[in-house]
Amino acid sequence: MSRDRASLQGFGSDSQTERERTKHRGRMSVVRGSLYLLAGRWPDAVKETVDGAIVAKANNDHLWHGKALDHLLVICLLYAWAGLDFQIPQALLAATEKSNSGSGKASKERLSSNHADLKAASAKSDPDSSLYNLVGLLPELVTVVQNLYSRAWVFTEDKLPQLK
């Protein structure tokens, strides 16, 4: 076996691009986050899922970005249900900020001040304020996730296997 062939084996097939590898790493991060969530390791689930959301967003992987945001929302709801202190992950706040970027100027100013208040309040260690902030973001987050799932349906880049 030649040295060139041995060095490529650990990195997938020759036809796989760097973007596909990055997309795969992001998806695996979301899967690991899902497994941590199921295992009850919520802090690890947040870390892995946020990493996956960032990679999915950067690669326009709409389905997996929506799935990551969906999981982060569930994790926050579980923290609130358990009465534990939590901070709303930046990935969720960033998703709602982007969804409102097409609004009018007055609406943008109001939303940006609301997001600044949410960021400041989320940094506090009061579980009730975190829950209150989450309830305020919930309708926007659900809309963002639904829009991402819709985009994934319309703008699919993934090739589906042929059925025989």
In words, what does this structure look like?
The chain is mainly alpha-helical and 164 residues long. The protein has seven helices and no strands. The longest helix is centred in the last third of the chain and has 28 residues, at 127-154. The protein is globular, with a radius of gyration of 19 Å. The protein starts with a helix and ends in a 10-residue tail after the last helix.
SSE diagram, text form:
Blueprint: H1 3-9, H2 18-39, H3 42-58, H4 62-82, H5 90-99, H6 105-123, H7 127-154
Key structural traits:
single chain, 164 residues, mainly alpha, 7 helices, globular, disordered N terminus
Task: Kindly summarize this structure in a few lines.
The protein has 164 residues and is mainly alpha-helical. Helices cover 76% and strands 0% of the residues.
Strand fraction equals under 5%
Helix content: over 70%
Q: Terminal Cα separation, in Å?
A: 36 Å
Q: What is the tally of helical segments?
A: 7
Mean pLDDT score: 77
Q: Which assembly state applies to the chains in this document?
A: single chain
List the secondary-structure elements in sequence, H or E.
Answer: HHHHHHH
Inertia-based shape = globular
What are the low-pLDDT stretches, counting only 5+ consecutive residues below 50? 1-10, 103-118
